[in-house]
Amino acid sequence: MSGGGVTIENTDSRQETVTLTVPSHPRFLYVIRSALYPLIIDAGFRKRDAAKMVLAVDEACSNIIRHAYGGQDDQPITLTVEFPEDRFLIRLRDYGKKADPSEIAPRDLADVRPGGLGTFFIKAVFDDVQYDTSVDRGTLLTMAKTKPQVSQ
Amino acid sequence: MKVEITVQKIGVGHLVVLKGDVDMNSSPDVRGSIAEVFKQGPGAKALVIDLSGVRYMDSSGIATLVEAMQNCMKQGMKLRLAELSPSVRDVFELARLSSIFEIFPKASDAQAGL
Fold this sequence. Notes:
Chain A is built from 4 helices and 6 strands; from the N terminus they run E-E-H-H-E-E-H-E-E-H. By secondary structure, chain A is α+β, with helices and mostly antiparallel strands. In chain A, a hairpin with a 4-residue loop joins strand 1 (7-12) and strand 2. Chain A is globular, with a radius of gyration of 15 Å. Chain B is α/β, with parallel strands linked by helices and 114 residues long. Chain B has a 5-stranded mixed β-sheet with strand order 1-2-3-4-5. In chain B, strand 4, helix 3 and strand 5 (102-104) form a beta-alpha-beta unit. The mean pLDDT of chain B is 93.
């Protein structure tokens, strides 16, 4: 990513996808949170559930900054939101070190210590979490949650 | 997005007031401010953290508070949290930490009984 800008692109009402790319600096995490929350609310989720989903995506972005990019703050993180009929679908793409799914495990919550909660939040909040490392570079993380009107 | 941090001495020890989002970007500042409190020497009974101005907290914020709790225990102090917003309380419950921390409705309540 050049210049560290934030871009919103490919907003296609026909395909119903929204794409947002931010640099891998922690100060841009709030941009993702701010963009994501109203989209989740519009999809029909309750405010408290929407806040938890935003938290989980924020944690996934933090993990990308820490682990995929090793703290480099000028690399791209691309968030894509899709709106299939029954689910809310979020994809996070990075181009750093590939995630190792065997090492991604939520920690035991009985072990009270600083750190290690992010992965637990992601898996607790979303119904389906997939790490795709078959992409050319980096990892494609897909998180999905069934929309409330379908599950009720 | 930055977090505003105010640290003041109170009768029972120290009061830290946070305002803003506590996330990966701002939690190092929070951690640094709390570390300064611990450098001020013995005598304090408690560290009270007023979270009334915090609308968002991620796992790095939670980790900062867990670390503060552990440091308080080492120094024989109590850590008391006050006025969690519903969204922050939800994060504590999601992490199953609500019963680990002493949580009070108001900062003034947190200073009582020490």
